[in-house]
Write a structure and sequence with these properties.
This protein is α/β, with parallel strands linked by helices and 369 residues long. It is built from 16 helices and 13 strands. The strands form two sheets. The protein has a seven-stranded parallel sheet with strand order 3-2-1-4-5-6-7, sandwiched between helices. Helix 4 links the parallel strand 4 and strand 5. Helix 1 packs across helix 16 and helix 3 packs across helix 4. The protein is globular.
């Protein structure tokens, strides 16, 4: 009976892990599938509430690592995961995305000669100043199975010398979760609760260090957002790491049309996105979700590891250029920006089933040999 640890630590991981946990436990009820939450995110709306809303079981273990600087957090993750794997001795670990928990789990497993399966492998921004990019590259280099979401990811892995036999195109598990919960999100109708029913409005997310910790970049972006808010409401669920910056911003405080909220649950945020006229974000996953729900996306970065979103008018990169942020947002809010692109291959709600199939074949071949 294979024993798997699925390691999650931050909000994006939860949406990716939920369908995989369900698919594995349904297809292989005799397998020992354990959900390990490192506790990298500990805000209720960013962890516990998500488990409830996504219908996931409570994690089998919560390591309670908490936040901190990258090096400090990574060190605590390594120690906690080392103890976990040494005690449980899983036959494989499954990791998701590019957060610190993903890299730490992969490093510890590699040292213990435990195979690693990486969901969302091969994505590249080609910007090594991003901690997430370093995490992606290192995790892929030591993974046994690499599950990709789009064609560019396989191309990147092949160019890095990865054996094609280790690469498996499975599609996008985050879209599995989105499709499953769209109806429930619509029923919440958060825009109506905020007084935005029938009105064009923007949704903003902002959390990356390059945008939040860099004072000049932050002021340029906030200045653009305030300008947009003069004409249209902008709803901004404030990420914990951005909270202090916003509180100290006189421009943000003076913007009457900028609606600040606490971090939202998954369903509430999806409800908000689905009825928006435009989404402004520096998140990778939200770029993908915007494409599927067909809401124009303006990405507050100069690069993206998800190039498939940059087609058919679905997504544009504007960095921290105030003029471009305002002009692209206004075009979408006025209804001047149409999206003309079909969902990418494999973004069909069945990615987790394909992952379970690959893992079943992999363990089956090991038993046969």
């Amino acid at each position: 009976m294979p024993k798997l640890d699925l390691v999650v630590g931050a909000r994006p991981n939860f949406m990716k892990a939920a369908p995989v946990v369900e698919a594995l436990r349904t297809r292989f009820p005799d397998w020992d599938v354990q959900l390990v939450h490192t506790g990298q995110h500990y805000d209720r709306a960013m962890s516990e509430l998500l488990f409830e809303q996504l219908g996931m079981p409570e994690p089998d273990v919560n390591l309670g690592v908490g936040s901190g600087g990258h090096s400090e957090q990574l060190a605590r993750l390594l120690v906690a995961l080392d103890a976990r794997f040494a005690s449980v001795k899983p036959d494989m670990i499954v990791v998701f995305g590019d957060v610190n928990s993903t890299l730490a789990a992969s490093l510890v497993a590699s040292r213990m000669l435990i195979p690693v399966a990486h969901v969302e492998a091969g994505l590249r921004s080609f910007d090594r100043t991003m901690p997430e990019e370093v995490n992606r590259v290192l995790t892929d280099s030591i993974s046994t199975l690499l599950f990709t979401t789009e064609a560019s990811a396989e191309e990147n892995l092949r160019s890095e010398g990865v054996d094609p036999k280790r690469i498996h195109f499975i599609g996008n598990v985050m879209i599995d979760t989105l499709m499953k919960h769209r109806e429930a999100a619509s029923a919440i109708d958060l825009p109506e609760q905020l007084g935005l029913a029938g009105k064009p409005y923007a949704v903003l997310t902002l959390h990356r260090p390059s945008n939040v910790d860099d004072e000049k970049a932050f002021q340029r972006i906030i200045g653009a957002i305030v300008e947009i808010a003069r004409d249209f409401p902008v709803v901004f669920p404030v990420h914990p790491r951005t909270r202090a910056r916003i509180a100290a911003s006189e421009a943000a405080a003076a913007a009457t049309n900028l609606i600040l909220t606490e971090p939202l649950g998954y369903l509430e945020f999806l409800s908000l996105m689905q009825r928006a006229s435009v989404i402004l974000t520096d998140s990778g996953g939200i770029q993908e979700e915007a494409l599927i729900i067909r809401v124009p996306c303006v990405t507050l970065r100069w690069n993206t590891e998800r190039p498939v979103t940059l087609t058919g008018g679905a997504n544009v990169l504007v960095g921290d250029d105030p003029g471009r942020i305002v002009s692209e947002a206004h075009a979408a809010l006025r209804g001047d920006r149409a999206i003309d692109v079909e969902p990418p291959a494999g973004w069909d709600g069945c990615a987790a089933d394909r992952i379970s199939g690959v893992l079943g074949d992999w363990f089956g071949s090991k038993i046969a040999n």
